Amino acid sequence: MEKNGGSAVFFIARTRAQTAADSAALAAAAELIPGLGTEPEAKAEEFATANGARLTGCRCALGTTVAEVSVAVPVTLTLSAFSDLTEVRARSRAEVVSPAGAP
């Protein structure tokens, strides 16, 4: 396989990782809405897994308004043939903001 094929595989893995991180952060943030959620880290892990990633970190404690997550997506053998890269990582942050005038 030529180098450009390896680059394409990397960018696909990178996109998958960022999508997983974004969805996990949004899911965790939704759990931070007072009265609605109870398990932000579990929800982040669920969404990361559903997007083909492994949750590697989650700062999303109940009582806070910010969810910060990190994920890892394994790379295919095609990409590892060009380097020692075995996974691609991504991070994302989501924040719960109350509308003006809301309690």
What features would you describe in this structure?
The chain has a three-stranded antiparallel sheet with strand order 1-2-3, covered by helices on one side. The mean pLDDT is 87. The protein has one domain (3-95). With 103 residues, the chain is an alpha+beta fold. It has three helices and three strands, in the order H-H-E-E-H-E. Helix content is 43%, strand content 23%. Helix 1 (3-31) packs antiparallel against helix 2. It has helices spanning 3-31, 40-50, 77-80; strands at residues 54-59, 66-74, 87-95. The N and C termini lie far apart (58 Å). The longest helix has 29 residues, at 3-31. A hairpin with a 6-residue loop joins strand 1 (54-59) and strand 2.
Draw up the topology in text.
Layout: H1 3-31, H2 40-50, E1 54-59, E2 66-74, H3 77-80, E3 87-95
- Our estimate of the beta-strand percent is 15-25%
The biggest beta sheet reads: 3 strands, antiparallel
Uncertain segments = none
| Rg over CA atoms | 16 Å
Strand pairing plus helix content: what structural class? Answer: alpha+beta
Total number of strands: 3
Please report the distance between the alpha carbons of the first and last residues.
58 Å
Please, what is the average pLDDT? 87
How many structural domains? 1
Q: Percent of residues in helical segments?
A: 40-55%
Order of helices and strands: HHEEHE
From the spread of the alpha carbons, the general shape counts as elongated
Number of helices: 3
Please list the strands of the largest sheet in the order they lie side by side: 1-2-3
